[in-house]
Amino acid sequence: MTKSLMASFAAWLMLTSAPLHAESWQCRNTVEVQCHAGECAAETDGITPLDVRFDADGGFSVCAYTGCWDGTGKAVRNPPHLLISAAQVDWSDPSRADENRSDVVIAFDSADGIALVKAGVFALPMACSRSL
C-alpha cells in the first residue's frame, strides 16, 4: 500500500469508528410492591416512583426515597434478555447503610422494555427506555 492510501484508510477508520459504550436504560414504576416476611403488598396511590438505571455491562443505580443502591453486578446476556445481580450492595445514606444493605437483581427484556427489579423490600415491575 502506498503511504497516502494507508493514511486515507487510517483517517476513514478513525472517522467511522464510534466508541463502544454499553447500552443503558432508565426505568420507572407506576406501582410499588413491598415484600416483608414472605408477604407482598402493592400500592398505586401516593407512591414516589423509584429511579432505576442500568447498562448491559452490569452497572446499576436503584434509587428509592432517601438513597440509592449503586454498583456493578454480574451481567448475564441472553438476547433479548439481560440479568444483573449483585450481592450485599451498600445503601448510599451512611446513617442507614447497614440496615439497608441489600442484594439487587434486575431482570430485563429489551424486546418490550420491561424490567423486574428486586432490591431491599421492593419487588417492582418497571417500564424502561433507552437512556443517552
Write the layout of secondary structure elements.
Layout: H1 3-16, E1 24-28, E2 32-36, E3 39-43, E4 51-55, E5 59-64, E6 67-72, E7 74-78, E8 81-89, H2 97-100, E9 102-109, E10 114-119, E11 122-130
Morphology call: globular
Largest sheet: 9 strands, antiparallel
Strand order of the largest sheet: 6-5-4-1-11-10-9-8-7
Share of helix among residues?
Answer: 10-25%
If you compute it from the alpha carbons, what radius of gyration comes out, rounded to the nearest whole angstrom? 20 Å
Q: How many discrete structural domains?
A: 1
| Nearest-integer average pLDDT | 87
Approximately what portion of the residues adopt beta-strand conformation? over 45%
Keywords: Signal
Protein name: Secreted protein
Organism: Arenimonas maotaiensis
